[in-house]
Specification:
This protein has helices at residues 33-47, 76-83, 153-156, 208-227, 231-235, 238-244, 255-269, 280-288, 294-297, 302-306, 313-325, and strands at residues 13-18, 21-29, 50-59, 88-90, 96-103, 106-109, 119-121, 127-131, 137-148, 150-151, 165-167, 170-171, 175-187, 190-202. Helix content is 32%, strand content 28%. β1 (13-18) and β2 (21-29) form a beta hairpin. By secondary structure, it is α+β, with helices and mostly antiparallel strands. Residues 236-253 have low confidence and may be disordered. α1 packs across α4. It folds into 3 domains: 13-49 and 175-229, Gyrase A, domain 2, CATH 3.30.1360.10; 51-171, DNA-directed RNA polymerase, insert domain (RNA Polymerase Alpha Subunit, Chain A, domain 2); 242-325, Orthogonal Bundle (DNA polymerase, domain 1).
């Protein structure tokens, strides 16, 4: 018999985390959902995660970005391009002002940026300029702000600026690279389910896992706003929970106790099989049969389970014992 339920995927698996890079997998996705989720998450990760960037630069002795400074190897526009690569962590939402003040021959790096409290440079080794004259002083004032994605200087500032202040395009995104791959995998008798792998590299202001988790939260908040979903609605459809729930005991006249029992039972039905301490043989058999929650398990009879590869009388006893601890039982 054909099923109309879309199977839920497995929880997020960490494949590799190293420095600012991370690789993560989601298995058991319904056919086609690998690209559906992968492309959506990639676009959100690139466009919607907040970051910090320099939005304006003021170089003492330079009235515009095409100027040059005596005793400095780089021209102003080259210094600005180098400064745009500097990454920050900022604890406040208000714009912050940082400074560079160097005198004498020196290779200037991001470590020379003087920051106020709440602002931290995360790329201190980044090259900015080289002062070649021992009598030269290089003074630079930077305005650092929070934002999303990429914003041009025209969109960011409508007001007039003082002479010497150079507005710059801001690359706020903390993501350096993100891509995804989708492979087919076997789930039960089918071989067209999807395995989604997402690879993320950040600038160090947040971890790759934080970037992925934040993107998933943003996606959920957007869906919740469209349909005014409640938190429990996002876990399982209401009709599915109702179908899986055993008949409640109506012998008690205390309606409050009945409601509490129903809530506890609903929570138990949502418990994932992979979070329960089943034996490896039993857990693998249930996974191959696409039984991923206790709600799906209590819809099966003993006969249904005995038809599964790897489930025998001993496995049935193990399942009954585990269900009993949650106050549940197999379908009669």
């Amino acid at each position: 018999m054909l099923t109309t339920n879309i199977i839920l995927p497995s929880q997020l698996n960490v494949v590799k985390e190293e420095g600012h890079k991370g690789s993560y997998e989601i298995e058991g996705l319904y056919p086609g959902y690998g690209h559906t989720l992968g492309n959506s998450l990639r676009r959100i990760i690139l466009s919607s995660l907040p970051g910090v960037a320099i939005t304006s630069v003021k170089v003492k002795g330079a009235d515009h970005e095409f100027a040059t400074l005596e005793g400095v190897k780089e021209d102003v526009i080259t210094m600005i391009l180098n400064l745009k690569n500097v990454r920050f962590n900022m604890a406040t939402d208000e714009p912050q002002t940082a400074k560079i003040s160097v005198k004498g021959s020196k290779t200037v790096t991001a470590a020379d940026i003087e920051t106020p409290g709440g602002l931290e440079v995360t790329t201190p080794d980044l090259h900015i300029a080289e002062v070649t004259d021992s009598k030269t002083t290089l003074d630079i004032e930077l305005v650092v702000e929070k934002g999303l994605g990429f914003v041009t200087k025209e969109k960011m500032h409508d007001d007039k600026v003082n002479i010497g202040v150079i507005r710059v395009d801001a690359v706020f995104t903390p993501i350096r690279k993100v891509n995804y791959d989708v492979d087919n995998m076997r789930v039960g008798d089918r071989t067209d389910f999807n395995r989604l792998r997402i690879n993320i590299e950040t600038d160090g202001s947040l971890t790759a896992r934080e970037a992925l988790e934040d993107a998933i939260k943003i996606m959920l908040s957007q869906m919740r706003a469209i349909l005014d979903l409640q938190e429990e609605d996002l876990v399982a459809p209401k009709e599915e929970v109702a179908e899986e729930a055993p008949v409640a005991d109506t012998s008690s006249d205390d309606s409050e106790n009945d409601e509490e029992q129903e809530e506890d039972m609903t929570d138990a039905l949502k418990t994932r099989i992979d979070s329960i301490d089943f034996s490896t043989r039993t857990a693998n058999s249930l996974a191959e049969a696409n039984i991923r929650t206790l709600g799906g398990l209590v819809r099966k009879t003993e006969s249904d389970l005995l038809d599964l590869d790897g489930i025998g009388d001993k496995g049935i006893e193990e399942i009954k014992s585990m269900l009993d601890t949650y106050g549940l039982a197999l379908k009669q």
